[in-house]
């Protein structure tokens, strides 16, 4: 989770914007649909990696999955061509909205595998597919907040993840995939409870640090900004200004003070267009 360079920072900012956009739409009773998935994709790829590959648009050409820069003949998996993809996407959306009784976690596991098999975007399919799991968990009220970091499990068992998806395509082995997926949900759920306790302790410690380091009179704006950083841990001065309603100059001074007491850090090294991260918070997810 910790950004190592400006490109990583951009991806984190885009991911947060994408998931916040999706959650806001769901809270306003907009259904999880192909339209919303395109909107989320547009947020995810608005800058940085993949931004030149049709953000918010389903692909119009053939893509494939394989090692390195393999060609179509060397591909491990070839998703449906565009004319078949449209029908597959329509069926996928119908499945999302189907009211037939089915355990929610089973349906979410099936939906993720179905989406990755369709692979409907030119780039960003993996990121959108993983984000889709979180949005479905929230839509079905299994989660109130997006605290289940299933991406960590998929990354930890990357080869098994890809093997299970490919086994569905080659052999129709849905059962092995669902066992793998449900085990992942269980593991990251256990980790999430630990992370939640760590976040509570971090909030208490940093409120105390701010009060001691800035004094009662100046701590109010710092604590207000700090609360926002639990939802937006990668930010710039303009965002800090918006969060605190301070002038740009005073927001800049406030962020500098938070840097000085070790709460946040600047990660771009630029004099302009600087980006900051709430690194102690992000490190909780990196280490979990």
Keywords:
3-stranded antiparallel beta sheet, single chain, Fic-like fold, 65% helix, 2 domains, mainly alpha, 288 residues, Arc Repressor Mutant, subunit A
Question: What would your notes on this structure say?
Answer:
The model has no long low-confidence stretch (mean pLDDT 90). Helix 1 packs antiparallel against helix 2 and helix 6 (150-156) crosses helix 8 (174-229). This protein is mainly α. 65% of the residues lie in helices and 2% in strands. The radius of gyration is 21 Å and the shape is elongated. The relative contact order is 0.10. It has 11 helices and 3 strands. It has a 3-stranded antiparallel sheet with strand order 1-3-2. The chain folds into 2 domains: 6-146, Fido-like domain (Fic-like fold, Orthogonal Bundle); 193-287, Arc Repressor Mutant, subunit A, CATH 1.10.10. The termini are close together.
């Amino acid at each position: 989770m910790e950004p190592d360079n400006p490109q990583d920072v951009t991806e984190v900012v885009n991911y947060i914007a994408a998931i916040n956009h999706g959650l806001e739409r769901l809270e306003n009773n907009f259904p999880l649909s192909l339209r919303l998935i395109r909107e989320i994709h547009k947020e995810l790829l608005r800058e940085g990696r993949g931004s030149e590959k049709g953000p918010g648009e389903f692909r119009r050409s053939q893509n494939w999955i394989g090692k390195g820069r393999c060609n179509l003949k060397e591909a491990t998996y070839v998703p449906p061509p565009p004319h078949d993809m449209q029908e597959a996407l329509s069926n996928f959306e119908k499945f999302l909205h189907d009211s037939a009784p089915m355990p929610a976690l089973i349906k979410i596991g099936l939906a993720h595998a179905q989406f990755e098999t369709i692979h409907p975007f030119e780039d960003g399919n993996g990121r959108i597919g993983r984000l889709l799991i979180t949005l479905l968990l929230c839509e079905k009220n299994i989660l109130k907040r997006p605290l289940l970091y299933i991406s960590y499990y998929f990354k930890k068992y990357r080869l098994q993840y890809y093997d299970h998806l490919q086994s569905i395509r080659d052999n129709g082995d849905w059962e092995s995939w669902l066992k793998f997926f449900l085990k992942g949900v269980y593991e990251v759920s256990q980790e999430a409870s630990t992370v939640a306790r760590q976040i509570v302790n971090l909030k208490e410690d940093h409120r105390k640090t701010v009060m001691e380091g800035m004094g009662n009179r100046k701590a109010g704006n710092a604590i207000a900004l700090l609360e926002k950083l639990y939802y937006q841990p990668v930010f710039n001065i303009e965002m800090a200004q918006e969060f605190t309603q301070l002038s740009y100059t005073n927001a800049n001074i406030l962020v500098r003070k938070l840097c000085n007491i070790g709460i946040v850090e600047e990660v771009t090294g630029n004099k302009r267009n600087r980006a900051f991260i709430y690194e102690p918070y992000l490190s909780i997810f990196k280490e979990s």
